[in-house]
Amino acid sequence: MFVCICKGITDKQIKKMVIEQGAGSIRELKLKLDIASQCGTCVKLTQQIIDDTIVDESLFKDVG
């Protein structure tokens, strides 16, 4: 799904940056993707995706 309509960034791209590049905040994500740089409507959803991805990844690491 598109999260940032202005820049055409999807939730999958955000998750990939969190998992593979270790982006843990919007500030870190902005270094990799040009997200939340125009209208700002995507900020809340982007932060939620970052938080959910970090929680999901840490839970899987503890199980294994």
Automatic annotation (TrEMBL):
**Cofactor(s) of this protein:** [2Fe-2S] cluster
Record keywords, A-Z: 2Fe-2S, Electron transport, Iron, Iron-sulfur, Metal-binding, Transport
Locate the BFD-like [2Fe-2S]-binding domain: which residues? 3-51
The membrane spanning regions, by residue number, are none
List the Pfam families. Fer2_BFD (PF04324)
Query: Into which family does the record put it?
Result: Belongs to the Bfd family.
Q: What is this protein called?
A: Bacterioferritin-associated ferredoxin
The organism's taxonomy opens as: Bacteria, Pseudomonadati, Pseudomonadota, Gammaproteobacteria, Alteromonadales
